[in-house]
């Protein structure tokens, strides 16, 4: 096994959260008497944290951002795991990597509290050390600080780690930290024209690629 540490993004990588995120954004918009946005439009705003998601969702309207973020997060917390699901064969990959002694972490731009709830609700939390949102990381991706913290806490060097994600932010943070990256094409984001170390369409493929 080439890698000793896998660092996973959350939304669009481990868990398909698109419907619950879109529902929360549209509940916030209804508070301001704005029409709902289509799912695809909301998802195109995901990847850079809650504040950016809300800013993009109300762009062009004279709305105070802090209040809007509070409303969106409150709506999301109330219904955080209604439709969210673990991607097919992801659990199998996690179980396999654990048996191989590969360490695993989560690094996401999602708020820490929401991240912890989702991973616990979907019974994934026990696979990962550490689990870092921006509060725990002390920064947002693509700042490499979160990756450095994962490396340090797991006593792994950069050349032995792989960042797994579905967004160009994940690819960029890996490049900034000097670690390899794997891009999940079936997630919610895009590669932003960057060139990943590994490209995979499903978790069976990733398992095979990492086992060779």
UniProtKB/TrEMBL annotation:
Listed GO biological process terms: DNA repair
Pfam families: HAD_2
GO CC annotations on file: cytosol
EC number(s) reported in the record: 3.1.3.18
Catalytic reaction(s) noted: 2-phosphoglycolate + H2O = glycolate + phosphate
InterPro entries: HAD-like_hydrolase_sf, HAD-like_sf, HAD-SF_hydro_IA, HAD_2, HAD_sf, PGP-like_dom2
SUPFAM superfamilies per record: HAD-like
GO molecular function: phosphoglycolate phosphatase activity
Pathway participation: Organic acid metabolism; glycolate biosynthesis; glycolate from 2-phosphoglycolate: step 1/1
Family matches, as Gene3D superfamilies: HAD superfamily/HAD-like, Putative phosphatase, domain 2
Superkingdom of source: Bacteria
Protein family membership: Belongs to the HAD-like hydrolase superfamily. CbbY/CbbZ/Gph/YieH family.
Protein name according to UniProt: phosphoglycolate phosphatase
Upper classification of the organism: Bacteria, Pseudomonadati, Lentisphaerota, Lentisphaeria, Lentisphaerales
């Amino acid at each position: 096994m080439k890698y000793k540490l896998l660092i996973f993004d959350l939304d669009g990588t481990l868990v398909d959260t698109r419907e619950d995120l879109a529902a929360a954004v549209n509940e916030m918009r209804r508070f301001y008497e704005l029409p709902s946005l289509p799912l695809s439009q909301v998802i195109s705003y995901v990847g850079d944290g809650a504040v950016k998601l809300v800013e993009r969702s109300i762009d062009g309207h004279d709305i105070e951002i802090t209040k809007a973020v509070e409303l969106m997060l409150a709506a999301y917390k109330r219904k955080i795991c209604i439709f969210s699901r673990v991607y097919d064969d992801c659990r199998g990959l996690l179980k396999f990597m654990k048996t191989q002694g590969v360490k695993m972490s989560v690094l996401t731009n999602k708020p820490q509290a929401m991240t912890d709830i989702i991973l616990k609700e979907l019974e994934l939390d026990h696979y990962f050390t550490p689990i870092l949102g921006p509060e725990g990381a002390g920064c947002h991706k693509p700042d490499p600080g979160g990756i450095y913290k994962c490396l340090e806490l797991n006593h792994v060097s950069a050349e032995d780690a792989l960042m797994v994600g579905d967004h160009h932010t994940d690819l960029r943070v890996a490049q900034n930290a000097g670690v390899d990256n794997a891009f999940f094409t079936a997630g919610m984001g895009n590669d932003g024209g960057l060139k990943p170390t590994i490209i995979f369409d499903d978790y069976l493929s990733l398992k095979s690629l990492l086992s060779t």
